[in-house]
Amino acid sequence: MSEAISPKNEPYEVELEAGAYWWCACGKSKTQPFCDGSHKDSDITPVEFTLEEKKTVWLCCCHRSENKPMCDGTHKK
């Protein structure tokens, strides 16, 4: 099984409009924290999430969160 790369050890704070998004689960995307298809040679797949309204979210970057794609503070442990 492939292992995700951690591009950095803190979450991405992003303000997003309502809609569907794909969070990069492999860590290889050049458009972090969003998927750009870089996972295609692995068994890791991106995580889709939907926002009902515009809001600021903290997206996991360490790839250890139990609440993916949202940060749960695991990077601090």
Verbal overview:
There is one protein chain. It is globular and about 35 Å long. The protein starts with 11 loop residues before the first strand and ends in an 18-residue tail after the last strand. By secondary structure, it is mainly β. It has one domain. It has strands at residues 12-16, 19-23, 47-51, 55-59. The protein contains no helices and four strands.
How is the secondary structure organized here?
Layout: E1 12-16, E2 19-23, E3 47-51, E4 55-59
Antiparallel strand pairs: 1-4, 2-3
Name a few traits of the molecule.
single chain; 77 residues; mainly beta; two-stranded antiparallel sheet; two-stranded antiparallel ribbon; 0% helix; globular
